[in-house]
UniProtKB/TrEMBL annotation, chain A:
TM regions (residue ranges): 24-48, 60-81, 120-140, 146-175, 182-205, 225-251
Superkingdom as given in the UniProt entry: Bacteria
Coiled coil spans: none
Protein name stated in the entry: ABC transporter permease
């Protein structure tokens, strides 16, 4: 058991270190995310003011915290649907992965999570810092939301990684998953609460969003860190994230096993 | 007459390349249908992002949802037309890595013209349709005094808006000769610019007015022409008569874009192929 854990830990660290080589890419991402953050601030602040100082519990301080934390998470939470695994399934390289004495799904997600965690340093923290200095934001003053928030944030990253893996695993049957990936790209940001916080949605659309795993990737971690909901509700959100992870992870495991039997690699 | 014939001969290679791209995209029907559908979904979701805000409040920056439809429709139509025809310039680093750009250098045709005509993304037609539908709905629902000058204003706005977004893509391509791995930085003014163009500029603070109002003239693509069309006062530093100056803003955008492109090309020393 300890040996297995160490393998995944090593893969995670490898992903982290690999991502650390792309410094210019991280800087480019930060510039884009911060510009979008400033534009989101003006339109959402105007909405809050038009609502008489608060809409659905969001005042300007909380709205600012929402904007900058969600922009900071953009480099880490995979909302693009693209993954290395999808490329490996398409090219047939995944056949080599199946020969290794580690679980293919576990290894793919561990590497992806490692890369995501690195991105928190050059893209996540600076975005939040820029927001705090340039715009200002309301953040909780006691430690509980931050501790639980760190767990929720990690779960959000893993849920996104596991969902993107699911798309890649469907490639065992579809071969080219680009169509699915673009579909994921189109709906994920909106339903995760990237552009407008989900509580601002009309009731039916809000219910629809909660029925998908997307809020568990972004809206829930942001809600927990900013303490928009109380501690009991925060624990509930983390529980929901765990449930999504179990369902999506289990489904990924089933698809991987079935896909392994179905896999046909052309050429030799 | 001779000149016209000459021009047609000179444009023939570009037409041939574009026609082959169109044929290749239409030959995989199922894939193309899925691409169109995804593109439609992206356009609709972008509209939904604005509509959702108006679920909580009646007006933002002094504009009602129907007035915002006009701003969104203009911006989305112009942006998606530009994306359809020159959007691929934004992926210059992949052309550099694949060595395609070095091939362009071997041909006796202008580099930028070859890059622009090297591809066309027909799937974006679905987003053009979303933009057009929003624009027409906005034109019908709002109280617009229709006369010759309103029609001229609208036509000027669409043409200049298209030119401005196209200039953003070309400028981004020019910068990417330097950025390569950091190409995402240009998303700040290409996609950020599109986002800014769909906003009511009346909510902007002074720094954003300078950046997206004038330097990257995004307010001129949709907000200002829409305000002039609706006969509304506009915003601080941006009176609505500036809507008539959209062609000037387009000229400015192209001057900046072409200078950036030239600067990038001079810097480029080959892909090492």
């Amino acid at each position: 058991m300890r040996a297995t854990t160490r393998v995944y830990w090593r893969l995670l660290v490898a992903g982290f270190r690999r991502q650390s080589r792309y410094r210019l890419a991280a800087l480019g991402g930060l510039v884009a995310n911060s510009t979008f953050g400033l534009l989101k601030v003006v339109i959402l602040f105007a909405t809050v003011r038009a609502g008489g100082g608060a809409v659905e519990g969001y005042d300007v301080g909380l709205m600012s915290a929402y904007v900058w934390i969600s922009q900071g998470l953009l480099g880490s939470v995979n909302l693009s649907g693209r993954s290395e695994m999808a490329e490996r399934v398409k090219s047939g390289d995944v056949a080599v992965d199946f020969l290794r004495p580690v679980d293919v799904q576990g290894a793919a997600i561990a590497t992806e999570v490692g890369r995501s965690l690195f991105n928190l340093l050059p893209r996540g923290l600076p975005a939040v810092l820029i927001g705090a200095l340039v715009v200002g934001m309301a953040m909780p003053t006691h430690p509980a939301p931050y501790l639980l928030g760190a767990v929720s944030l990690l779960l959000g990253i893993v849920v996104a990684g596991a969902t993107v893996y699911l798309i890649a695993a469907l490639g065992f049957w579809l071969v080219d998953t680009r169509g699915l990936q673009i579909f994921y790209l189109a709906v994920s940001g909106f339903l995760a609460g990237l552009f407008v916080p989900i509580p601002l949605f009309p009731a039916w659309l809000e219910a629809l969003a909660h029925a998908t795993p997307f809020p568990a990737m972004l809206q829930y971690p942001v809600d927990v860190i900013t303490a928009r909901v109380d501690l009991a509700a925060s624990l509930g959100l983390v529980g929901a994230q765990l449930a999504w992870l179990l369902v999506i992870g289990g489904l990924g495991q089933l698809l991987t096993r079935a896909g392994r039997r179905h896999l046909e690699v052309q050429g030799g | 007459m001779v000149e016209v014939l000459d021009l047609r001969t000179r444009l023939r290679p570009y037409r041939a390349v574009l026609a082959s791209r169109v044929r290749s995209q239409r030959s995989y029907r199922a894939g193309f249908a899925l691409d169109l559908l995804s593109s439609l979904l992206i356009g609709l979701i972008e509209l939904a992002e604005i509509w959702v805000l108006f679920h909580s409040v009646v007006e933002i920056g002094g504009l009602h949802f129907t007035q915002m439809l006009l701003v969104f429709g203009l911006a989305e139509l112009c942006y998606s037309l530009a994306d359809l025809s020159v959007g691929h310039c934004d992926t210059l680093p992949s052309y550099v890595r694949a060595g395609t750009l070095d091939v362009f250098y071997l041909r006796p045709q202008p580099l930028l013209l070859q890059l622009i005509t090297s591809d066309i993304s027909l799937r974006r037609l679905a987003r053009v349709a979303v933009g057009l539908a929003a624009l027409v709905t906005g034109l019908v629902l709002n109280d617009i005094a229709w006369n010759v000058s309103a029609v001229v204003l609208l036509a000027l706005a669409v043409l200049s808006g298209y030119a401005m977004f196209a200039a953003m893509f070309v400028g981004a391509a020019g910068m990417q000769f330097f950025l390569l791995d950091g190409a995402e930085a240009t998303n700040a003014f290409v996609y950020g610019g599109r986002y800014a163009a769909t906003q009511p500029a009346s909510v902007w603070g002074r720094p954003i007015v300078v950046v997206f109002g004038f330097f990257f003239p995004m307010a001129f693509t949709a907000f200002l022409p829409a305000m002039a069309l609706l006969d509304l006062p506009g915003a601080e530093w941006m009176p609505s008569w500036l809507g008539w100056c959209a062609p000037l803003a387009a000229v400015w955008a192209w001057i900046v874009a072409l200078l950036t492109w030239r600067w990038g090309v001079r810097h480029y020393q080959g892909g090492g192929g």
